[in-house]
Design goal:
Helices cover 32% and strands 34% of the residues. The chain has 322 residues and is α/β, with parallel strands linked by helices. Among the domains are: 63 residues, Dna Ligase, domain 1; 108 residues, 2-Layer Sandwich (Nucleotidyltransferase, domain 5). It has a six-stranded mixed β-sheet, sandwiched between helices. Strands 13-12-11-14-15 form a five-stranded mixed β-sheet, with helices on both faces. A hairpin with a 3-residue loop joins strand 11 and strand 12. Helix 1 crosses helix 3, helix 4 crosses helix 8 and helix 5 crosses helix 6. This is Tfp pilus assembly protein, ATPase PilM. InterPro entries: ATPase_NBD, FtsA/MreB, PilM. It comes from Thermobacillus composti (strain DSM 18247 / JCM 13945 / KWC4).
Length: 322
């Protein structure tokens, strides 16, 4: 008997809502079965904060009417502007004890720009040798409870249920793991480029090691403003170079360079951005787009929209599993 699994990923930005439903049948390639996007009303979300819940919920309801998904359970990502991501060195303890250590650190030593934090963590690298006092690299992700509730409530108003919540860089990492572009032992920089905000993630040996959300305004493609496009591309190159410096010197990867830069996102300038990155004297890396070859796509529209759907596809893959 065929074992069929399906899952729905939902991305909500300041400007749009995007969804993708992934289906896997037995051991066949994952299929992007359904996808859709809807523009949000102006100022309904600003810097990740939902200001008009009913307007956002109605947009989600319209999105689901177009999509007609098989499930109403969704995997969502919190906006980067609402999330704090820190990479710490902590004692290599069992998860329950480590959570207590992190609670103490958040209360007494780690300053947060918000109240009532909710957090989770991921241990990175290899376990420390037994019996020692060695430290372990830990990725800490924290977000305000109020923001989490806002997104859960607006999803519920739309007749949906939140199955999981995570950060965008982990969704993108899951996607390139599926495409085979997260190579063991390699350092990969992921750049998901949006109209107003871009997410950068440094992946080393298959693990997220640095993540940043960068405000960069790309011009409207209909404006034909090539000077503004060059400035935006230049800003992105500078931010990638800064991230590489931080990765090398703050995280003690001084002998590492970026092996590959992978681009995705909703802007129509990705090939132009590839050329700008290739022209940087400080980035000696292979530059390409996130590949869609690991997926079956039912329509030409899905192929054309694949790069703009990178985050919701990565979210849906969480529901599909390995």
């Amino acid at each position: 008997m065929w074992n069929k699994r399906f899952a729905l990923g939902l991305e909500i930005t300041d400007f749009a809502a995007k969804a993708a439903e992934i289906t896997v049948r037995s051991k066949s390639r994952a299929a992007i079965n359904r996808h859709a996007a809807e523009r949000l009303p102006d100022d309904s979300i600003r810097e990740g904060r939902i200001l008009q819940k009913e307007a956002v919920a109605e947009t989600l309801r319209s999105l689901m009417r177009r999509l007609q998904p098989r499930t109403r359970k969704v995997h969502i990502a919190l906006p980067g502007s609402s999330v704090m991501i820190r990479f710490l060195k902590l004692p290599d303890l069992p998860d329950k004890k480590l959570r207590k250590v992190i609670e103490f650190e958040l209360e007494h030593r780690i300053p947060l720009p918000f109240d009532s934090p909710q957090f989770d963590f991921v241990k990175l690298g290899s376990p420390a040798p037994a019996g020692g006092d060695a430290l372990r690299d830990v990725m800490l992700v924290a977000a305000p409870l109020e923001t989490i509730r806002e997104y859960a409530e607006v999803v519920a108003l739309a007749g949906l249920a939140v199955k999981s919540i995570e950060i965008r860089p982990l969704s993108l990492l899951r996607l390139i793991e599926r495409t085979g572009q997260a190579e063991p032992g390699k350092t990969v920089l992921l750049a998901d480029v949006g109209d107003r905000m871009s997410d950068l993630g440094m992946i080393h040996n298959g693990e997220l090691r640095v993540a940043r959300s960068i405000p960069i305004a790309f011009p409207d493609p209909e404006s034909g403003d090539s000077a503004a496009l060059r400035r935006a591309c230049g800003e992105l190159v500078q931010e990638i170079e800064r991230l590489l410096i931080f990765f090398r010197y703050n995280l003690r990867f001084r002998d590492r360079s970026i092996d590959r830069i992978l681009l995705s996102g909703e802007v129509p300038y990705l090939e132009r951005i590839m050329l700008e990155l290739a022209g940087s004297t400080n980035l000696n890396a292979e530059i390409s787009l996130v590949s869609g070859e690991a997926f079956r796509m039912r329509t030409i529209e899905a192929e054309q929209a694949f790069l703009s759907l990178a985050v919701p596809i990565g979210l849906a893959l969480r529901g599909i599993g390995p």
